[in-house]
Design goal:
heterodimer; A: mainly alpha; 12 helices; B: 39 residues; 67% helix
Chain lengths: 312, 39
Amino acid sequence: MIRFEPRAGLSPLRSVGLRILAVAAALAIAAIPLSVAGAPILPAYAAMIQGAAGTVFALTETLTRATPLIFTGLAAAVAFRARLFNIGAEGQLYLGALATIAVGSGAVEGPPALLVPLVLLAAAAAGAALMLGPTILKVRFGVDEVVTTLLLNFVVLLFVQMMLEGPFKDPMGGGWPQSEPILPEAALPPLLERMRLHAGLPIGIALCVLAHILISRTVLGCASGPSARTRPPRPMRAFRCSGPAHRRRHVGRACRARGGLRGRRAQGQSHGRPVARLRLCGIVVAMIAGLQPLAVIPAALLLRASSSEPTR
Amino acid sequence: MSRAYGVSSYIADLIVALALICVLVAGLFVRFRVRWERA
């Protein structure tokens, strides 16, 4: 008979080592289908690494493509730690993108120092606002957020479609249902010349660090739901986070945080790039990272690096 | 990598899926000690 006994605790070093080992094991197991497909294993992995970081261009492309995943993964990690299973990422992303277009395509004019934060805030607020309905339904009536957020995706997609074929339609778009481009002053500035890498990456990393500090070093972090399996960090130990009133507060906070992060990601993605494959990747990134905000960064990089092609 | 060696591009998804499974399984074994007992 097999019996599972809970272990005492998980040290941070052990947690990191575990994830590295798990990724190494995954690569070792993936060698089987690779060899079945007829690819030489080590050169194939070498090509993957070269495609992801072999040149400055490849590295910047990997970082650029990983940036939205950092936001998505962080959004999922924050929400899942609070036991909030939000499947409405796609809707929040699209609504954030719509807010970006509404604010950044000419409605407000000004220098980048004004427009970029304004557009970021608008996108975050739109993503967070979309979570308001599911939050109220969950807190007041106990409605499952998986159902409400999932169904809201379809509502938002139709709403965005309506806006792109109506008020937001680009008159120069040749009949295509597309919006006007956002102003160059409202776009995130590039970090390197002639590269796509933009300021979204440092913003994403900063938010991961901020989330880590909030979760592990502050009383507020208790609101993100320390799980039963881990011991709360020292500042939280004296803090009791039980009771329906607190639960209501912390679910609401997590909802707003997640919606806002999604919306913020949309600001970085609202330049006509495909977003369809991003919708569930955030959950994958968060799970690989073990819901740890700092681990979201390497997890997002791994996800992007795995689909890299070497440049010739 | 998939184009360079002519394998399906879904191999990237497979690697990510395997990484996820490995992380979850490893997390289970770190959180719980498995004991074999004779009935």
